[in-house]
Amino acid sequence: KDELRHARQIKSVTMKQAEWEQLILCYLQEKGYKDAEQAFQRSCHLDDEEMALTDRLSAYKGVVEQLVSHFNVESEPSVYAESFERLSTWVDNALDMYRGELSRVLYPVFLHCYLRLVANDATPLAKNLLTKYKQRLCDIAGGLSRSRAEALQALQGVVIRQHLETNQFAKQASSMKTTIRMSSYAHGLLMQFLCSSPRMLQLAGIINEHINLEVTEGPPQPVVEEPELGEAEADDFSNPMGLEDADVAFTNQQPVHLGLLKGNVEDQAFDKEAASQAPPPLPPQEQGSDAEGDADEEEGDAEKKKKKKLDPETERKLAAAEEKKRIQETRERVDPQPWVPQWLDTQLEQSWLTDIANRAPVAPASLPSCCLFTFVNARQSLNCATFSSNVTKLVAGFADSSVRLYDLTGQQEQQRQQRRQARVARGEGAPGVASDMQIDQEGAMAPGGTWGSGQQGAGQVHIDPDEDDEDDRPAGVTYLYGHTAPVYAVDMSHDSRLLLSGSGDGNVRLWSSEMGVGLAAFRGHMLPVWDVAAAPLGYHFASASADRTARVWATDNVCTLRIFAGHQADVDVVRWHPNCHYVATASSDRSVRLWDVGTGGCVRFLLGLRAAPTCMEISPDGRQVAAGGEDGSICVWDLGTSKRVAHLAGHTGPVWSLAYSKGDGALLASGGADETVQLWSTSGAAGINPPTTSGTATTSTPSAPAPQATDAQAGSTAQQGNADGALGASVGSTAVPAAAPRVVAHHAPLSKHHTKSSSVTRLQFSNRNLLLAAGSFRKSGK
Asked: pTM of whole model > 0.85?
């Protein structure tokens, strides 16, 4: 029996082999390869029984036609374009109840048809197909039309076969598999259409390889438009990196310690304030007398106390809850790593404690004041700016490769006047006389806190040509030269003694803000450095570059300490976590990552950005991170759960800066190219006044105002290509009128204020919660 069963198996295999030989023979006959057909017949040695299979193979005629059509694709790549047009027409003519489900197949099929046309050197056909169906594909995307348009725009850059291996978007699309849900009847209609013609075999292969069709029972479900990018059900590029969902989930499940450092300055100030508010202990005598005097009252209220007294089980639960809360609060503070300093300078620490004690409480009910510093004649040249922690210096980077350090205290102007008076006493020269003490130099500072435009006029100081070069420079401005390309990023150390700058030359330079000289150059990036960030404590700093990496450095070592690699596009922004244990990066691949400084590994992978990021900020408690994009939106994530908790839309242009208020981070400020500063609530609060929706910040009038450049002067100078960087300051109040209390939801808009005509390049809260802003002025109508 076993031998008979084995013989039948061999016969079955032989018969299948014979069928395949007949299929190949039919294929050669269909193609007209006579010589190959005769040679194949001689090599196969078909017997009479096998030749009798010819009639039985008539059912495989369709398969043969499909094989012929498949092998004709290399010589006729137009099959992809023709088959997609037929599919699009068929979907348009489908019943309304099925058209919504069937239309979701069009975009992924079109994407792979385009890539296969490029792979077969049929770029003109691919371009024509993209031009014809681009608008149609964006229309059926619904809420994802913007991201769909961006994806199709990126697809236009894939024009030659080599781009399929080098273009990141093409690589992601080739390896991606889309999941589409549809009803069983719609699925049957689609399969029937794909089998209706041999020339539809290519589309069937694309769907089988790159689309996962989830068939559901019952009537067709209405197609729900996805309101935001990043949802798992979206048939778009929710994962811009092309990573598997399992990889992202594994990364986001790694443990992170987001608590603040033990013994941080904020906790010290809180403990100090709590100790000062606690009632002093009573002396023993007073304690005894008070006890005797209260004895009668206690006896009279005995019955009430018995009623209010809780049962032992409830008391035990409350005590356990209090103990758990105390332990939880203790666990939220982490021990500093070896690279984080254990102590601060005593004078600096005392200064911080004083600022915290005098900090203005800000909340949705009490909005902060804002001070805007405007750079005149720097519309096309100002790239970045930042303030020192003690608000005594303002640093700006310009397109002429210079870093400029502005003194906001006016001490340099006083020192200049003292030097001039000393020269007059020595008989070395006499200065001119001016009523308002303006300087006849571009970017000079006036006593009232306003930087002049450098225009000649009456009542100005004329510099003596015999004076030294130091006095020839504008007062209160230190020019730092060393970079050979535009400066794109600046930042200051925690004690404001050191200054960092990143440039298009790929270098990060370290400067002394006190001496105004360069200290070191850090070389390691191969492409422009887009951002630099100093650690909240210590002398480490991070840099982000167009070479798709972020690096960690130390001021006492020119070698890189850590390299964070993994982004698939430029790393645009980098920020430190408040506990100095992590570094966050935002990239043009529309993802945000959190890196462990100790291990160098990625511990969080955050998705949801619709456009390339332009700014980023981590909340003071280290629990959330916010990122602004080129599309004017702001995304907020919870670092613990890796979930996006808010998507804020209010700006009409790129968001260039974000800032959390100091302390509890109750407010989030945003500013950008639309010349507005907007305030957002980060937590619900009771007793809130209604927000102000628009308006211009009120400008205070100083007691001795200094002349400023007029709009015409600033506009004419900017048109001539000058980048003077003249600076002015105005203080505005964001107070809102009193109204009935209400509850503000999480991340709700509070107020929106327009500058007079200045884009907002930098926002930063001081230690006392004064909102500082810096930007370049442009003439109205330009």
From this structure: no
